[in-house]
Design brief:
Elements lengths: L1 E8 L3 E4 L6 E3 L26 H10 L3 E4 L23 E3 L4 E3 L5 H11 L2 E6 L6 H12 L5 H8 L10 E4 L14 H18 L4 E4 L12 H10 L5 E8 L6 H5 L2 H21 L7 E9 L21 E2 L10 H16 L4 E7 L8 E3 L5 E3 L3 H10 L3 E3 L2 E4 L1 E4 L3 E4 L1 E8 L4 E8 L6 E8 L5 E9 L21 E2 L4 E3 L2 E6 L3 E8 L4
Parallel strand pairs: 1-22, 3-4, 3-13, 4-7, 6-12, 7-8, 8-9, 9-10, 10-11, 11-13
Antiparallel strand pairs: 1-17, 2-16, 5-6, 14-15, 16-20, 18-19, 20-21, 21-27, 22-26, 23-24, 23-27, 25-26
The structure holds alpha-L-arabinofuranose (AHR).
The site of alpha-L-arabinofuranose (AHR) has 10 residues, from loops.
Organism: Labedella phragmitis
Protein name: non-reducing end alpha-L-arabinofuranosidase
Pfam family, one: Alpha-L-AF_C
């Protein structure tokens, strides 16, 4: 049995919980939009074609903000194609995912869907094939009340009131050689600066995200952020981060420790932002939008039923199956640790989007004409989005180690916690990374009075299963949350035992001492 002692002190906090940390992402990719959130003709579809069964799961998952419409897709997208009478919308080739885009779903449909799902919209503009003009036109179309060409076109298209979209991404992954219209840091930095200015001339209230590196392994990581911000620091509010992780060669121990990499990646971007801030004598603070993160089995891209875009050349299809990863228990525990990393950095990471929402590397799966269900990774996201409120607590953690090939010794128990003073609750988010040993946990509560356990749940290997157990169409509830038994308060400390390979959430009711 490994052991961990966590000390909570009500005076040691990191930040208000940034509620936008629990964001998601809908890209026109594979079956995220078509047969994911939108499937006219499905028995569960409403009159607009929104799948009610998927919407219900989205509401249960609880994302606060959803990025749209891409992703790589946005770098070749003409937003005007997706507005106006559906029968007049053009069919286009989407080069990013080698797909035929019908444009049956566009901005108005997304705005309506987002209202139903009760999420904020994070809209990305195309800075791959397009520039300043089309971006400022889109802001005018979306946010200007009326009396001008673009705002009146929106009204003509059925939306009298502005959409009032606050959050905008200045393109996507433009450092990547795979990106349509990729750029050097110099080219992008200047374009981002000028586009941001022009968009803000239309609506000064918007918030803007500059594109950071596509991942930490990019050869230009660091210098890209530095150059881009050297141009655009004053014009933007956030710089983006993207990261995907997977298990390599059966090395589950290293995979379970990937949040160590995520922590270091975030710290590196913070250091770069602050270096530009200091050198430029800027006073305002640029923060981070971690607007793509997840587990993604990228090495499994090329399969027969989900051919990779390149090998699929010649077979242009509508909404093909693309990267529909099936997630298991191990993946869910890793996702729990990523959410902990984001919370621990809540002072600087203000937005984060798990990529994506439905079917495409997603917590929710759906079949065309068939059912929708929750993947294993649904559970940590749903509980953290629901329960992380108030302030993020700065924890002192003293844990037994687990040894890993990639990261050396790491804490067996990974944790984050939030304190909702108004409601008198503490939420503890815990992961046991050890594959073999249970974790004997003690949580000291300093400065907090009598506590009781309101709820305690755990996700772990199901009976008769193994660490690869997953929810699939014919067995949709194999992996989920079950009660975590025997969580006690002993002399002002919480005592619990976490099963090997598990993610747990414990909610305490506390009073100020
Ligand atoms: O989320 C899938 C893809 O991953 C996105 O389109 C792109 O931005 C990233 O490379």
């Amino acid at each position: 049995m490994s052991t961990a002692r966590i000390t909570i002190d009500r005076d040691f906090t990191i930040a208000e919980v940034p509620r936008r940390l629990f964001g998601s992402f809908v890209e026109h990719m594979g079956r995220c939009v078509y047969t994911g959130i939108f499937e006219p003709g499905h028995p569960q579809a409403d009159s607009r074609g929104f799948r009610r069964d998927v919407l219900e799961l989205v509401r249960e998952l609880g994302p606060t903000v959803v990025r749209y419409p891409g992703g790589n897709f946005v770098s070749g997208y003409l937003w005007e194609d997706g507005v106006g009478p559906v029968e007049k919308r053009p069919r286009r080739l989407d080069g990013a995912w080698h797909t035929v885009e019908t444009n049956a779903f566009g901005l108005h449909e997304f705005v309506d869907w987002a209202r139903e799902a009760d999420v904020e919209i994070m809209e990305a503009v195309n800075l791959g094939t397009r520039g300043v003009e089309e971006a400022r036109a889109l802001v005018e179309y979306a946010n200007h009340p009326g009396g001008t060409y673009w705002s009146d076109l929106r009204r003509k298209n059925g939306a009298e009131d502005p959409f009032d979209i606050k959050l905008w991404c200045l393109g996507n992954e433009l450092d990547g050689p795979w990106q349509i219209g990729g750029k050097t840091a110099q080219e992008y930095g200047r374009l981002a600066q000028e586009t941001a200015k022009a968009m803000r001339f239309v609506d000064p209230s918007i918030e803007l995200v500059a594109v950071g590196s596509s991942n930490r392994q990019m050869p230009t990581f660091g210098t890209w952020e530095h150059t881009v911000l050297s141009h655009a620091y004053d014009e933007v509010d956030y710089v983006s981060m993207h990261a995907y992780y997977q298990e390599h060669d059966g090395d589950a121990a290293s995979f379970l420790a990937e949040a160590v990499d995520m922590d270091a990646f975030i710290d590196g971007v913070i250091a770069t932002i602050d270096a530009v801030k200091a050198a430029g004598k800027h006073t305002k603070q640029v923060n981070i939008s971690f607007d793509e993160w997840n587990v993604w089995y990228q090495s499994g891209l090329d399969t027969e039923d989900q051919p990779h875009v390149i090998t699929a050349a010649g077979q242009w299809r509508e909404h093909p199956r693309l990267i529909e990863d099936t997630y298991n228990v191990t993946d869910a525990v890793v996702v729990g640790t990523f959410l902990n990393s984001l919370l621990r950095h809540g002072d600087r990471v203000k937005i984060a989007n798990q990529a994506q929402l439905v079917n495409v590397i997603a917590p929710i799966r759906s079949e065309e004409g068939g059912p929708a269900w929750r993947q294993s990774i649904f559970w940590p996201f749903a509980r953290v989005a629901q329960l992380a409120r108030g302030r993020v607590l700065r924890l002192a953690i003293d844990s037994s180690p687990v040894s890993t090939k990639r990261y050396g010794d790491v804490d067996a128990i990974d944790a984050a916690a939030t304190w909702d003073e108004e409601n008198g609750t503490i939420a503890l988010f815990l992961a046991n990374r050890s594959l073999e040993e249970a974790g004997d946990l003690t949580v000291d509560l300093h400065g907090l009075g009598a506590a009781s356990v309101r709820s305690a749940e755990v996700l772990t290997v199901p009976e008769g299963g193994d660490r690869k157990a997953a929810n699939v169409v014919d067995d949709q509830d194999r992996v989920g949350l079950v009660p975590l038994r025997d969580v006690d308060i002993v002399e002002g400390a919480v005592r619990a035992t976490l099963p090997p390979l598990s993610w747990a959430v414990v909610v305490l009711e506390v009073a100020r001492a």
